[in-house]
Automatic annotation (TrEMBL):
This is glucose-6-phosphate 1-epimerase. CDD domains: D-hex-6-P-epi_like. The gene is gb02163. One of its GO terms (molecular function) is glucose-6-phosphate 1-epimerase activity. GO terms for biological process: carbohydrate metabolic process. It comes from Eleusine coracana subsp. coracana. Belongs to the glucose-6-phosphate 1-epimerase family. PANTHER family: APOSPORY-ASSOCIATED PROTEIN C-RELATED (PTHR11122), GLUCOSE-6-PHOSPHATE 1-EPIMERASE (PTHR11122:SF59). Keywords: Isomerase.
Length: 279
């Protein structure tokens, strides 16, 4: 699958590689000393690629994905905020995944320095005037994406109420890993086993009590313009989420939700789990 045309440059502050997709949208590339990589788009704050040290892609992206704002690319890890699904009056999965984010100047990007640190990028989203018309609440959404020296991918979201009144929202990391079920009050560590590739995804979460497991399956796949008819066989969405009960923030309060993904050999999977739930 072609991801479009990319041009390369470097962020002078950190040495991080910056590429631009065929729409000119910047993507930041994180790399580990062992050859792992991740790529984060400024469009939606979306993680669009995560590769192991052999260069194998660990996240699914549809061959028919539409790489054109204001639509979210079908695949990777999407930020669903302030709504998940069609549960409210906003567009499906909220507007955060369809907005252009900026680098958080308070926390510049960092690269590996040989001392065991992570390659990290910090992004920031604030509501536009149009956003405030459909959802009249002022917020600051800070997203940190990190890649460890061993290739573990972690995401940390901090959402602060800078409004003068309380507001409520739902949230999910919409993660395409390669069925329609929601696990309420699920354990904080989950394993997804891929017997064919003989590896497992270990998913750790904090501040996110629910897990949404989704696959469009055969019938729905044929109705989706940005998804191949047979691609339901290649992916499974496992979303760390807060959807059953809305999160409410008073003025000045902040919520934090964390996600960590590891790809390990299936034979070593049990070493990472205290109380595993295999999907």
């Amino acid at each position: 699958m072609s991801m479009g045309h990319f041009t390369n440059s470097a962020d002078q502050r950190s040495g991080l590689e910056v590429v631009r997709d065929w729409n000119g949208v910047a993507q930041l590339v994180l790399r580990s000393p062992k050859g792992h990589s991740a790529r984060v788009s400024m469009h939606g704050g979306q993680v669009v690629s995560w590769k192991n040290d052999r260069g194998e892609e660990l996240l699914f992206t549809s061959s028919k994905a539409i790489f054109k704002p204001p639509y979210a690319m079908r695949g990777g890890i999407q930020m669903c905020f302030p709504q998940f699904g069609n549960s409210g009056t906003l567009e499906r999965h909220g507007f955060a995944r369809n907005r252009i984010w900026i680098i958080d100047d308070e926390h510049p990007p960092t690269n590996h320095n040989g001392n065991g640190s992570k390659a990290t990028v910090n992004l920031l989203l604030k509501p536009s005037e149009d956003d405030l018309k459909c959802w009249p609440h002022c917020f600051e959404f800070r997203l940190r994406v990190s890649l460890s020296k061993d290739g573990d991918l972690s995401l940390k979201s901090r959402i602060r109420n800078v409004n003068g009144k309380p507001f409520s929202f739902s949230f999910a990391y919409h993660t395409y890993l390669s069925v329609d079920r929601v696990y309420v009050s699920s354990p904080n560590v989950i394993a997804v086993l891929d017997h064919e590739k003989k590896h497992s995804f270990v998913i750790k979460k904090d501040g996110l009590p629910d897990v949404v497991v989704w696959n469009p399956w055969e019938k729905k796949s044929k109705t989706m313009v940005d998804f191949g008819d047979e691609e339901y066989k290649q992916t499974l969405c496992v979303d760390a989420a807060a959807v059953e009960r809305a999160i409410t923030l008073k003025p000045g309060e902040e919520w934090t939700g964390k996600l960590e993904l590891s790809a390990v050999s299936s034979t070593n999977c049990s070493d990472h789990l205290d109380h595993p739930v295999s999907i």
